[in-house]
Design goal:
With 486 residues, the protein is α+β, with helices and mostly antiparallel strands. The protein has three domains: 249 residues, BirA Bifunctional Protein, domain 2, CATH 3.30.930.10; 77 residues, no CATH class; 93 residues, Rossmann fold (3-Layer(aba) Sandwich), CATH 3.40.50. Helix content is 35%, strand content 27%. The chain has 16 helices and 23 strands. Strands 3-9-10-16-13-12-11 form a seven-stranded mixed β-sheet. It has a five-stranded mixed β-sheet with strand order 20-19-21-22-23, sandwiched between helices. A hairpin with a 5-residue loop joins β22 and β23. α2 crosses α12. Bound molecules: adenosine-5'-triphosphate. Adenosine-5'-triphosphate binds next to β10, β13, β16 and α12.
């Protein structure tokens, strides 16, 4: 297909126009970095979530799923280190009062250097930044910004404050009257709901190490620099899995999940060359190894998923703060193959943002295509080539005319299929127009019922990606769609 363009601004407006993503509270001019998913977006998000859930839980006999509450006892966040450590280094421009996360500010400058072909300078800048951040050398970071003459995008000046840390957690009050109230936090990650339930799940599920606990759910972070559409939101959804292993085996499992998760993304249709690993130089306070699986978003390579070896930090912290023993009795091994006894398991975590994965899928799927037809004239369409397995609507059922018994046949097919997958029925407008609308929302198959259907019980099926049409038996439609969904 000639001339495919992939413009991010176009994609954002397409998402709005076709019921995928709306700005939150739009009628009040919106709320920054908060988004609502529309009728097609909610279904796509659910399909991605279900796919992740199935591959984690149903397809791994040693992983189970839970659904912990967003609110947790406030001591959770003291124990996890989030109250003391969950902050980002920020810098303010004194002229514009605009606040930046220092890594974002420096990375944007590095990107500009790369665009100018100054690859070596880009490399040195990012390497120095990583080293300074790893050493928590904020004076050094400020000097790096000044030495590189990195300017504020608004004031265009280099007049910066000192680098300071800002906590990212949202707090609120629990309790009916103010005097009784207590500060609690909206969880900034779903993982802690898994850690505090470790023993509940292990005991009630009779789980044997190594085993995992998976969870999907909302997380909240007061991101100061919220940008790039649904890439960085203040309210978002995570899909996390904590895998509990014997101490000393964590690197083995870290490497296992590193490979496994990249493979999973590829299985979802993300091309291997659009994914890469990025090892962390600065490790979080709980980790002994960490990396990001990055995707090449329309605005550059960015984190899609984190793989973290979290040691026994979290379970040990909860044990200390709760004063409840959180250990696992391992009755395997020994005669010096070791365990056989109690220990605190180590944890390897896989953590992917559902919204970021949504953005990945939709930015890969979006195409603005033009081509020359046989008669020499130009034609074009906007299409979302979402993999059939996760597309919001699988099949459009379109009677060619609104009469002659065609709608009746179409509705019968609809009734036969709708229990198995999401269908859409439409009888308005010319068939070409209906096909284009289905392309735009990403429906992989359209079936047209015409007069020939009445004669020989065949229909025209049209494939979204190739626009090829073929005649198949009406009775084969459901089977074909189910097969293609995989
Ligand atoms: P970043 O460096 O981009 O802020 P992070 O390293 O803080 O991300 P993690 O704490 O590892 O992110 O969270 C795990 C996953 O949750 C990320 O890989 C990402 O997909 C998702 N995520 C984190 N913060 C956000 C956000 N503000 N909006 C959307 N998704 C997010």
């Amino acid at each position: 297909m000639a001339n495919e363009s992939n413009n991010f601004a176009e994609l954002i407006s397409h998402c709005k126009e076709y019921g995928y993503i709306f700005q939150s509270s739009e009628i009040y001019d919106g709320l920054a970095a908060v988004y609502d998913y529309g009728q097609n977006g909610a279904q796509l998000k659910k399909n991605i979530r279900d796919h992740w859930w199935k591959s984690m839980t149903q397809l791994h006999d040693n992983i189970v799923g839970i659904d912990a509450a967003i609110f947790m006892h406030p001591t959770t966040w003291k124990a996890s280190g989030h109250i003391d450590n969950f902050s980002d280094p920020m810098i303010d421009n004194k002229d514009s009062n605009k606040r930046y996360r220092v890594d974002h500010l420096i990375e944007a400058h590095a990107e500009a250097l790369a665009l100018e072909g100054k690859k070596e300078e880009e490399f040195t800048l990012l390497k120095t930044m990583d080293e300074l951040l790893a050493a928590t050398d904020y004076a050094g970071i400020k000097k790096l910004i000044e030495d590189n003459r990195i300017k504020c995008a608004i004031s265009k000046t280099c007049n910066w404050t000192e680098v300071r840390e800002f906590n990212l957690m949202f707090s609120t009050q629990i309790g009916s009257v103010a005097e009784e109230s207590d500060t609690i936090y909206l969880r900034p990650e779903t993982a802690q709901g898994i850690f505090v339930n470790f023993l509940n799940v292990q005991k009630t599920g009779r789980m044997k190490i190594p085993f995992g606990i998976a969870q999907t759910g909302k997380a909240f972070r007061n991101e100061i620099v919220a940008r790039q559409f649904i890439f960085r939101m203040r309210e978002f959804e995570q899909m996390e899995m904590q895998f509990f292993v014997r101490p000393g085996t964590q690197m083995e499992w870290y490497n296992f999940w590193k490979a496994e998760r990249k493979k999973w993304h590829e299985g979802l249709g993300i091309p291997a060359e659009k994914l890469r690993y990025h090892d962390h130089v600065k490790l979080a306070h709980y980790a002994d190894a960490a990396l990001d699986i990055e995707f090449e978003f329309p605005f550059g390579w960015k984190e899609l998923e984190g793989i973290h070896s979290r040691t026994d930090f979290d379970l040990k912290q909860h044990q200390e703060y709760s004063k409840k023993k959180i250990q696992y009795f391992d009755n395997d091994l020994n005669e010096a193959g070791k365990p056989f006894g109690n220990y605190t398991p180590f944890v390897v975590e896989t953590s992917v943002g559902l919204d970021r994965l949504f953005l990945t899928i939709i930015s890969l799927a979006y195409a603005n295509e033009t081509w020359t037809k046989e008669d020499g004239t130009e034609d074009s369409r906007v299409v979302l080539k979402i993999p059939a397995r996760i597309a919001p609507t699988k099949l459009a059922i379109l009677p060619l005319l609104k009469k002659d018994g065609l709608p009746e046949i179409a509705k019968e097919l609809m009734n036969d299929c709708k229990n198995s997958f999401m269908c859409f029925y439409e009888e308005k407008d010319a068939i070409g127009k209906r096909y284009r609308r289905m392309d735009a929302i990403g429906t992989p198959f359209c079936v047209t019922i015409d007069h020939q259907t009445k004669e020989d019980n065949t229909v025209t099926i049209r494939y979204r990606d190739t626009m090829v049409q073929e005649r198949i038996a009406l009775s084969e439609v459901k089977k074909l769609v189910l097969e293609k969904m995989g």
